[in-house]
Amino acid sequence: MIHYFLSAATILLFLSLSPPTTTAANPAVLDINGHPLRPRSNYYILPVVRGRGGGLTMLSKNTTEVCPLYVAQENHEVSNGLPLKFYSVNPKDTKIFVSTDLNFVFDASTICVQSNTWELTIDEETGRRYIGVGGEIGNPGVQTVSNWFKIEKAGSGKYDYKIVYCAGVCNFCKIMCGDIGAFVEEDGRRLLGFSGQPLLVRFKKA
Predict the structure, then answer these.
(1) I need a surface site. Which of 4, 22, 68, 86 has the fewest CB within 10 A?
(2) Is the pTM of this model over 0.90?
(3) Smallest Cα–Cα separation from 203: which of 41, 39, 46, 27?
(4) What confidence tens digit (pLDDT) does each residue in 61-82 have?
(5) Overall fold of domain 4-205
(6) Positive or negative CA dihedral for 143, 24, 102, 123?
């Protein structure tokens, strides 16, 4: 099975207009201890609902491949997964804000020749939109529109959030926005992608 990364040209065909990027006007994202998330610091992304997997990691699409890698959820609830760093679209930000365009980057080594920066990908055989890795940090604009994600407040808990794709780094681009949830594949792997059921998460300082 061949998988393709979304190109900027493909994303431009999507139908819902992306909202403008904002930063300081929005509240800061808080970790489980009530502290604001800081750019370029390491955090674990953990599920709010227990018993349905652990923290986030990187996995191949299936057992017959080693690369490329995708964003996945650990099957074991007790695992924190891999640490990540967040990079704001505004490099002067000293906190991570809700509803702000961000790069998500795993702080880990792999054998795959690709970056650890999240990017939206598409499986052209199924049409399913997954979160892969291989994007770039910064350089906001049409060429990197698939690399930007946002953290939004969700759930009933004070420190509960969800991750969404709704890039605002290109004012004239038309973007298909979506909540990020976990797909359980046939072999039990929990890969992240567009889902009608968002994965509610919390952030833990690594």
Answers:
(1) 4
(2) no
(3) 46
(4) 888 889 999 999 999 998 999 9
(5) Trefoil (Acidic Fibroblast Growth Factor, subunit A) (2.80.10)
(6) negative
